[in-house]
Amino acid sequence: MSPGRRMETEQVFLGLGSNLGNRLDNLGQALAKIAALPDCRLLRTSGFYETRPIGGPPGQENYLNAACQIRTRLFPPELLAATQRTERELGRRREEEPERWGPRRIDIDILLWGDSTLDRPELIVPHPRLTERAFVLAPLAELAPDATHPATGLRIRELLERMAEPHEVICRLPL
Questions:
Q1: Structurally, how many domains does the chain consist of?
Q2: Looking at the domain assignment, is residue 148 inside a domain?
Q3: Phi and psi, residue 91, nearest 5°
Q4: Is the residue at 69 inside a domain?
Q5: Is residue 1 part of a domain?
Q6: How confident is the model over 100-123, as pLDDT tens digits?
Q7: Does residue 162 carry a catalytic annotation?
Q8: CA distance linking residue 169 with residue 136, whole number of Å
Q9: Which of 10-19, 89-98, 103-112, 164-173 has the lowest mean pLDDT?
């Protein structure tokens, strides 16, 4: 592909989470910013799921998690840069986070990129811990239960059903 030529649109699923400040507002603002990204179209959003924090320091507040489906002409590094810019605009300061899996105002992850896989230092798709996290699989299964994880060949709903203890998901918030 030549450098100036845009790719065809790709279906991408993003995961979002927040456990600092007004979590519902943080997710709403992030979704609005995603919908406004150039060369992206927000198609659908899952419900919001209240979840317990996994890892990180004790005493964190619960998270609100969601997933969204977009179509984009952006290349993966461009979308990653756009989601990280969105995180910064909403107050996330990675350099101020004392440890991995600590509390955060907003977190946006690229979960699936069509049926593609990508392994670069800055981005791995499908998300490397997608199969281990009910707090990501539950909202993703709401949107795309029959989407196939390209590395395992399993459907998203099958991955969720295989979770031994999806203990971190407390409930799906009513709309």
A1: 1
A2: yes
A3: 100, 5
A4: yes
A5: no
A6: 566 789 999 999 999 998 889 888
A7: no
A8: 9
A9: 89-98
Q: Which domain holds residue 17?
A: 10-172
Indicate which CATH number applies to the domain containing 102.
Answer: 3.30.70.560
22-51 per-position pLDDT tens digit: 999 999 999 999 999 999 999 999 999 998
Q: Measuring CA to CA, how many Å separate 83 from each of 11, 30, 106? A: 16, 9, 10
Does 104 participate in catalysis according to the annotation?
A: yes
Asked if residue 4 is part of any domain, the answer here is no
- Set 23, 104, 105, 133: catalytic member: 104
Q: Which of 5, 6, 73, 92 is catalytic?
A: 92
Determine the pLDDT at residue 2.
40
Active site residue 119: no
Residue of 107, 115, 133, 157 with catalytic role: 107
What lies within 8 Å, CB to CB, of 127 at 6+ separation is 15, 109, 110, 111, 112, 136
The pLDDT-based confidence of 82 (bands split at 50, 70, 90) is very high
